[in-house]
């Protein structure tokens, strides 16, 4: 049995999460935040005997910040457990998302002929493309692909898709 390969197709898979730009500073900031919460809880305990209202105010604000840090930590963990595969072939763009936390897989697809333009957000830690079609907009994260994200841009530009960099003064096509 012969297998035919589409010579115009290209497939990209996300790299390891530990290679994400900005991951180390984010983890350091989270750790410093948790230290901050611990210090202020300790201060609130010492202030408790002197001023009950001030102590409760410090505890409540520290607790609120701890909840915020916990949500950020969970989101960071959830992102680290996702794997992305982007496939561009002759007629369509397919994004597969494999989520280990929920155990669900997702697939998004658009036809390349229907893409009027794509917005490119080049920020290293959150790089993404938003494809605009008459029936839906589809966001494709490029940050998990690392340096291969530029290969995606080059391939799509070569296919004739208009890519608008949001950092430039280019206007969006009407």
Explain this structure to me?
- This protein is an alpha+beta fold.
- The protein has 2 domains: 18-80; 83-165, Roll (PH-domain like), CATH 2.30.29.
- It is built from 3 helices and 8 strands.
- The protein has helices at residues 23-47, 52-80, 148-158; strands at residues 10-13, 82-88, 92-99, 105-111, 117-121, 128-132, 137-141, 163-165.
- The strands form 2 sheets. A 4-stranded antiparallel beta sheet has the order 1-2-3-4. A 4-stranded mixed beta sheet has the order 7-6-5-8, covered by helices on one side.
- Strand 3 and strand 4 (105-111) form a beta hairpin.
- Helix 1 runs antiparallel to helix 2 (52-80).
- The longest helix is centred in the middle third of the chain and has 29 residues, at 52-80.
- The chain is elongated and about 70 Å long.
- The model is unreliable at 1-5 (pLDDT under 50).
Features:
174 residues, alpha+beta, PH-domain like, 2 domains, 4-stranded antiparallel β-sheet, 4-stranded mixed β-sheet, 37% helix, elongated
- Helical residue percent? 25-40%
Largest sheet properties? 4 strands, antiparallel
Series of H and E elements: EHHEEEEEEHE
Which stretches of 5+ consecutive residues score pLDDT under 50?
1-5
Strand content: 25-35%
| Rg (CA only) | 22 Å
The shape is elongated
**Taking strands numbered 1, 2, ... along the chain, how are they ordered across the largest sheet?**
1-2-3-4
As for the CATH topology of the largest domain, it is PH-domain like
**Structural class, from helix and strand content?**
alpha+beta
